[in-house]
Amino acid sequence: MTSTIWWTIVGCAVVTAIIKGAGPVALGGREIPPRFAGVIALMAPALLAALVLTSTLAVGDRWTIDAHAAGVAVGGVILVRRGPIVLAVAAAVGVTALLRVVT
Q1: Nearest 10 degrees: CA dihedral of 7, 61, 49, 19?
Q2: pLDDT one digit per residue (tens) for the chain, 103 residues
Q3: Which three-class secondary structure state does DSSP give residue 61?
Q4: What is the rounded distance in angstroms from the CA atom of residue 65 to the CA atom of residue 73?
Q5: How far is 14 from 20, CA to CA, in rounded Å?
Q6: This prediction's pTM
Q7: Among 53, 56, 58, which Cα is nearest to 71's?
Q8: Distance CA 84, CA 87 (A)
């Protein structure tokens, strides 16, 4: 059992190294085309949005909208309207707590 876990970790490390090395090997010191640079620049925000959406709306293997999602939505609206982050966090916590007490 323990050796299987370690072989899995070693395999993941090797695959990660191969993936990270594929870019420099494929480009060979050439400049990245502007179109690819634009795609690369958008990958981090897309990944962050996917992680926030999944952690907010997923409960186990189902999608759900609950008090947690409402709190995140309220905090997000405050941040989109350029409100202070402390206010956004406090409002999100307050809305989540209030909805959990009510339901």
Answers
A1: 20
A2: 788 899 999 999 999 999 998 888 887 778 888 898 899 899 999 999 999 888 888 888 888 888 888 999 999 999 999 999 999 999 999 999 999 999 8
A3: coil
A4: 11
A5: 10
A6: 0.55
A7: 56
A8: 5
Instruction: Please count the CA atoms within 13 angstroms of the CA of 92 that sit on its side-chain side.
Output: 19
Residue 39 corresponds to which tokens in the numbers above?
A: 């795609």
Task: Please report where in the chains the tokens 């959990």 appear, as a residue.
Answer: 100
Residue 15's Cβ-count burial label (10 Å; 0-12, 13-18, 19+) is: exposed
- E strand residue ranges, the chain: 58-59, 62-63
CB atoms within 10 A of CB 92: 21
At 6, the amino acid letter reads W
DSSP for residue 84: -
Token pair listed for 65:
């909208």
